[in-house]
Amino acid sequence: MELSQMSELMGLSVLLGLLALMATAAVARGWLRAGEERSGRPACQKANGFPPDKSSGSKKQKQYQRIRKEKPQQHNFTHRLLAAALKSHSGNISCMDFSSNGKYLATCADDRTIRIWSTKDFLQREHRSMRANVELDHATLVRFSPDCRAFIVWLANGDTLRVFKMTKREDGGYTFTATPEDFPKKHKAPVIDIGIANTGKFIMTASSDTTVLIWSLKGQVLSTINTNQMNNTHAAVSPCGRFVASCGFTPDVKVWEVCFGKKGEFQEVVRAFELKGHSAAVHSFAFSNDSRRMASVSKDGTWKLWDTDVEYKKKQDPYLLKTGRFEEAAGAAPCRLALSPNAQVLALASGSSIHLYNTRRGEKEECFERVHGECIANLSFDITGRFLASCGDRAVRLFHNTPGHRAMVEEMQGHLKRASNESTRQRLQQQLTQAQETLKSLGALK
């Protein structure tokens, strides 16, 4: 072989060797870069002085993914009339109830806890709450006892009532103790509502079939009501403690009186009256604080306000006072309803939105869109009528009731024109000025 050919072969071999080395180095750099991206730090860096652990990055990544699944991002909502958001629950809140003394709000969620909130903290920066744990279950419904020293809950898995007693500790806090035995299981269908009479004489539970049960406080069934409505969608005890009402597939609301003797003994349940006037199934209804007014909302796309202060024993029917349109109720989704204590404001919820109406004029005054990340599960005014509370995810949101303040202004202005003496005018003027100043501070004075 000639010398020139040998030199060409040697040069080609060297070139091929260099190309192979360059390819190997490029692959190695790719591996190092991939390792850095997976671990979040350079591959050559030591963790805590030790060589990097190949499994630590994947373990941390799986753990981080698991935490993110367990704690979804909280739904954010802002509005100029939002007074507060209560956010201590780690699960979705299904029900809430204001105590009759106005001091507390109870909430229950699927995180196996009940929270008791102080209403005097609503406008504060921090919102205190006391926690009661539900052992091996979770509550779907909660109601305060009339003396506000106990509350009852409906257990999701146990399908029964459980009573919790509140005991004040020496440090000023409270402990919550469940009674030794739960109520016996009587319902055959899921329970949708519970209630306690403010007289302390009975408890009501209603299931999604046509059954409403009246219980003694000791867990004895006093009476079984068949509503004959094909199904129940809502049931409640009136604030006066005399009546139980339900609505469902039929276009009416049925009301019964629970009768007791002079010595407090149970006697019977009798039909009192009905709210007739809707043309389709009734979603929900509510009483005013004195039980003299009721409101209802139906799939026919209307809401109605009724005067129920009638002599029903003489077959007198309730009077229809006002009818308003609420097109959202005509859909398949359920609607929630709340009536202010003085019956001047009606709150209707469909999906995750809330609409507030003036019941005297029938006009919509406020609308809050996408209030919660889920459909609104419960809606309620506090006993003063200052706030409207809603729940539907892990938070309770409290709104200033500006339509209520406007209704107060209208009412006081009317009373002032008819006032007959100076002292009455001064008192009315003071109330009028206070309501106007509140609206001004909220930026809602018209």
Automatic annotation (TrEMBL):
<keyword id="KW-0732">Signal</keyword>
<keyword id="KW-1017">Isopeptide bond</keyword>
<dbReference type="InterPro" id="IPR020472">
    <property type="entry name" value="WD40_PAC1"/>
</dbReference>
<keyword id="KW-0175">Coiled coil</keyword>
<feature type="region of interest" description="Disordered">
    <location>
        <begin position="38"/>
        <end position="72"/>
    </location>
</feature>
<feature type="repeat" description="WD">
    <location>
        <begin position="275"/>
        <end position="307"/>
    </location>
</feature>
<keyword id="KW-0677">Repeat</keyword>
<dbReference type="InterPro" id="IPR001680">
    <property type="entry name" value="WD40_rpt"/>
</dbReference>
<protein>
    <recommendedName>
        <fullName>Transducin beta-like protein 2</fullName>
    </recommendedName>
</protein>
<feature type="repeat" description="WD">
    <location>
        <begin position="184"/>
        <end position="218"/>
    </location>
</feature>
<dbReference type="InterPro" id="IPR036322">
    <property type="entry name" value="WD40_repeat_dom_sf"/>
</dbReference>
<dbReference type="Pfam" id="PF00400">
    <property type="entry name" value="WD40"/>
</dbReference>
<feature type="coiled-coil region">
    <location>
        <begin position="418"/>
        <end position="445"/>
    </location>
</feature>
<feature type="signal peptide">
    <location>
        <begin position="1"/>
        <end position="30"/>
    </location>
</feature>
<dbReference type="InterPro" id="IPR042410">
    <property type="entry name" value="WBSCR13"/>
</dbReference>
<feature type="repeat" description="WD">
    <location>
        <begin position="86"/>
        <end position="118"/>
    </location>
</feature>
<feature type="compositionally biased region" description="Basic residues">
    <location>
        <begin position="57"/>
        <end position="69"/>
    </location>
</feature>
<keyword id="KW-0597">Phosphoprotein</keyword>
<keyword id="KW-0832">Ubl conjugation</keyword>
<dbReference type="InterPro" id="IPR015943">
    <property type="entry name" value="WD40/YVTN_repeat-like_dom_sf"/>
</dbReference>
<keyword id="KW-0853">WD repeat</keyword>
